[in-house]
Amino acid sequence: MSSRPSIIEPGESTDENINKLLYESEEDWYGDAAFFGAMAHQPTLLTRIVSLFDAFSQGEHIDAETLELMRLKVAETHQCAYCATVRTQDVRDEVAPKEASVFGEVDTDALTRREYLAVRLAEQLSADPHRMTDGFFEALGEVYSDREIIELLLFASIEVGLDRFCIALALDTTERSPYPTGLEYPFENFD
Asked: In angstroms, rounded to a whole number, what is the distance separating the alpha carbons of residues 108 and 118?
């Protein structure tokens, strides 16, 4: 048995609002409750993080599909088994045809210019933000406003931190989810 904190399963919390979020995470968010179940040890923070996710998913500037492509690139860069395995349910079907284009060398032909640059931003921020050049920001500025660039950076930064949260916990999917369990870290099978 692992000495890392366990997840709180749906129905196990003494807080009914948290149980509701955990059930929603199985049905909606990612189709799995482990991620929210780990954060459920801190109910107030979980509630606030969910509100933050809601704000990004309802963004008026960056579409949810682009954010999911970014999330997947961050997962690959960090080799986060959990983040590379689960999918955001609301955009899963729309993003599926483009997933292969973000793993490995980013395929410029399969993505729009905006998607490509957003995915590259996620990759560079994950790998080494010190190497993000003025030239890269000039390219971003050709297709994104300053406001949108900040949104992309904030989203990618949150994903970088949350990937590391999942890695530190060696987070695995739950038995009740449709995903495979027994995830191994680092995750190297992205095809």
From this structure: 12
**Beta carbons of 164 and 125 less than 8 angstroms apart:** no
Tokens of 169: 């916990």
What residues contact residue 183 under an 8 Å CB cut-off, 6+ apart? 81, 82, 85, 170, 171, 172, 173
Which of these, 57, 67, 6, 48, lies nearest to 29 by C-alpha position? 57
| DSSP-derived secondary structure letter, 13 | -
Q: pTM (2 decimals)? A: 0.94
Predicted confidence (pLDDT) per residue in 137-164, tens digit: 999 999 999 999 999 999 999 999 999 9
The CA-based angle 43-157-131, given to 5 degrees, is 160
